[in-house]
Structure formats: C-alpha cells, structure tokens
Amino acid sequence: DQSVKENKRAQRPSVTEAEAVGSKALALDRPDNVADIDAADMGNPQLVSEYVNECYAYMKQLERRQCIDEDYMATQAVKGQINASMRRILIDWLVDVHIRFKLVQETMQMAGHIIDRFLPGVP
Predict the structure, then answer these.
(1) Chain-centroid distance, C-alpha 43
(2) How distant, in Å, are the alpha carbons of 71, 88, 105 from that of 94?
(3) What HEC string does 48-91 produce?
(4) Is the per-residue pLDDT at 15 higher than 90?
(5) Other CB atoms closer than 10 Å to residue 46's CB: what's the count?
(6) Whole-prediction pTM value?
(7) What is the Cα–Cα distance from 109 to 93, expressed in whole angstroms?
(8) pLDDT-derived band at 32, boundaries 50, 70, 90
(9) What beta strand segments (E) does 15-55 contain?
C-alpha cells in the first residue's frame, strides 16, 4: 500500500521552479498573502493554468471598461421612461420566476445585469 501511494505521488505533475516563477510574474494584482491556487495544476495541460492570470487580468479590464453608471436610474427618471420603483417591480418579478423554475443563482444575476446594461441605452 505504501509503495503504491509513493508511486502515485511520483506520477503526479509537480510545479517546477521555472513554472512557479512564471506564475508569480503573471500574478498581476494578487497580494503576497494570497496563495496561487492554480500553481499545483501547472503540469496539467487540460487546465491551462498558465493562462489563468491573463484571463483574470482580461476579465478585470473588461469589468472596468464596461462598468455601469451608478446613477443611471436618475437619468431614466428625468426622461420619464422608467424609475427605480419600476425597476424594483421588474427585479421582484424576475426573482419570483427564478424561484418558481428553480434556476441557478447566476441566471438571476445575469438577468439583472442585462437589464442594468440595457436601461442606460434606452432613448
């Protein structure tokens, strides 16, 4: 049993020093006290962990670029199109639909995000 366990450990991919240094170099905004949870997966090509930091950096860049204006409802109310109480009624209805059909939480969050992305562009 002991030799089988040691054999399995020997077959697992290990993080080389070069990979660890490369991973550290790509850790763009990760503080020193936060562990690199993808470091152990560096040897597995299916997990493409060498690109994970670039993916996170790109997603953060998109989030900054596509940020929704926090007071867009004030401009909507001025236009007479939709106000905060109308949005609240719509979101409440979406929550009811979400609960009724037992949807995953991400579906509800995405629906709210789509509404908030759409409303500022309504003329």
Answers:
(1) 24
(2) 22, 10, 12
(3) CHHHHHHHHHHHHHHHHHCCCCCCHHHHHHHHCCCCHHHHHHHH
(4) no
(5) 6
(6) 0.52
(7) 13
(8) confident
(9) none
